[in-house]
Each structure stands twice: as structure tokens, then as C-alpha cells.
Amino acid sequence: xxxxxxxxxxxxxxxxxxxxxxxxxxxxxxxxxxxxxxxxxxxxxxxxxxxxxxxxxxxxxxxxxxxxxxxxxxxxxxxxxxxxxxxxxxxxxxxxxxxxxxxxxxxxxxxxxxxxxxxxxxxxxxxxxxxxxxxxxxxxxxxxxxxxxxxxxxxxxxxxxxxxxxxxxxxxxxxxxxxxxxxxxxxxxxxxxxxxxxxxxxxxxxxxxxxxxxxxxxxxxxxxxxxxxxxxxxxxxxxxxxxxxxxxxxxxxxxxxxxxxxxxxxxxxxxxxxxxxxxxxxxxxxxxxxxxxxxxxxxxxxxxxxxxxxxxxxxxxxxxxxxxxxxxxxxxxxxxxxxxxxxxxxxxxxxxxxxxxxxxxxxxxxxxxxxxxxxxxxxxxxxxxxxxxxxxxxxxx
Length: 397
Ligand SMILES: *Cc1c(COP(=O)(O)O)cnc(C)c1O
What we know:
The chain has 397 residues and is an alpha/beta fold. The chain is built from 14 helices and 13 strands. The longest helix has 26 residues, at 371-396. Pyridoxal-5'-phosphate binds next to helix 4.
């Protein structure tokens, strides 16, 4: 009999149950960015999350504080993000070469980062629908994590390790045969992360030819650096969803705002599965202010791209490295002689010297920073290569 006087040792007698799914234990904490381990004496160069190297200019920060102070804190934010959506619509039209008025609020979903909307795409297409997610790896790791936490299987097709090309014959076979489950959503990152390679013409043609019962998500997180967009597809293809973020090229990672552009029918479904009041009033304001000033803000993008060119050229001179051509604000470098131990050592040494980059997919993904940071990246990488070369030599004796 269970009573309040149950002896406190009952947990040792009865097996202690858990309401939690056992498969979650095997997954890492979702969006965890690797913790920086740098010498305490030196501020680290955080080049591991593809953030913008510069904060907003002071006058904009002041305007932002002033307008946030004027918000009614006791009220929920606008759940429809009306003012922000109008501004995003104009921005999408202008930056995508579309006619004014082509995009309206019915085409737009706004999320707590594009992350929320990417996850919503899986919920809306696959959950409870026997759906399978298709990805092309290496790519943004979260598609896989979100699918698995939602109990949705993932078909991941390896890309060509030298070119990053998608094996279109294999992908097409899997989608059309349904051999390995019903593919209901395909994720592509344009340009891809970590490699920085944009979609090719045959890949775009393949996506266009996919049947309408497959949701095609084109993640344009790095649009501000790449400049190429597939947004015009949404007018012909009701199953296309283009996602973008304010976290990378628009300098608002701290505020968590992203958006998706798609047909009104698809948009209505995504809106149904996202969280209510998902973007704080302060974040909506921050995004609006950035869009009010996007033309002057984006002049700095040219500096980032020039720095990418400079760092890329410098690193390409280091014999043992291969530097991938990139259309985004990061560079992917691999070892000409693939060697997992040496790569791990390089990463360790960079971290130790205070340059934090991402070790992933058999290479290092290095965010473009300020000129000083990039100079340190180059110097640190050069020394780390020399040191690990010596290690190899020692090993041979
Ligand atoms: C950074 C990133 C995102 C997510 O950005 P949010 O901050 O959630 O908007 C999505 N996709 C890719 C490829 C990214 O690199």
C-alpha cells in the first residue's frame, strides 16, 4: 500500500523509471556551440559560429535601446510580426530582383531564428505522416538532430568528397522509388556549410523537377554573402520554402530572428506548427531597424569578402592545405593528405593559441573575422602546421 509514510528507501526497492525517450540520450545537446578552451590570459578569436565580425554601429545601438525602452513590456509581441513582415517583404523583393509587391505577408513566416522554421518544416511534412527527411552530407548538422528528436528517420546521402556535388542519380532513385521510406522533405544549404559551395545548375534543375509532394527547403543562411537566391521559385512551385536568417550577414545573432518565404498554402501550414508569440518584441524591433539601414550596413560585407579573398590566398600558399572556394563568410580547409590525427592536432593547437574554429567533416571551417583576427588565424595555422609536421617527422624515427 502506498502511503505518505512509504520508507525513503523505496527507490532502492522499486526500479526507478523515467518518462524520457531512451534514444534522446545518444544525441548531443542540440545547438550547443563547442565551449571555448583558450588560455585565460588571451581573449579568443571566436571564428567557430560564422557570426558577423562587427557589431552594429553605435548610433544604431542607441536607436535600438531607445525604441526598446518605449515598448509596452506587459503586452505580448505582435504574433503576426506585421511591421517586420512588411519590411522583410520589401527586402526580399529588392535583394532578389523581384517586382515591388510580389511578396506579401501571406508568403512569409517569421521565426525565433530560421532554426524554428526549419524544424517546423519537418513537423509539418513528416511527423505522424511516415515521412523521411533527406539531407546531403556534410551539411548543417541540425536538420539531422531536429529530425531525430522528432522521431523522424533521416536518409543522408554523402556528397562528393572533392567537389561537394550531390549524387543526383542516387537521390532521385531514393525519392522516386521510396525504397528507403517516403521522402517528404529535402534540405539543401545554399551555399553549403561547412564547404561554402553553392548549389550547381544540375542540382537546381533536379530540385525543380522534384514532385510536388516533396517539400524542398533551400536554406539561404548566407544569402548576404553569396547574393544568389532561389526565392523566385516559390511563384511556380508551391512546395518550395526558402529560409533566411538575421544571424549571419545581418549581425543579429543575439536576437534570434529568421524568416521563410514560400507559397501561401505552405506558409499557412508552417504558421500552424510554429510557437505562438515566437519572436520577442525587442527582436522584432531589432530586425526592423537593421532592415531600415540594410543598404548602409551591407557596405561592410565587401570588407568581409575582401578578407575572405586575402585569407584564402594566404592559406592556399601553405602546401599541405587545400582551401575550398567559398561563397559565404567562412573558409573550409582540408589537408591535402587526409590525416584525422593531424587535423585534430591542428584544431587543438589553434584553440590553444586562441583561434577558435570548427573541426567538422574532415576539415576546419574558419569564419572570416576582422583583419587582425584573420592575420592571427593565418599565423596560428602556419605555426600549427609546422609543429604537426615536426610531430610526423618525429613519429617516423
Ligand atoms: C546559422 C545557420 C542557421 C540557423 O540560423 P538561426 O540563427 O537559427 O537563424 C541555419 N542554417 C545554416 C546553414 C546556418 O549556418
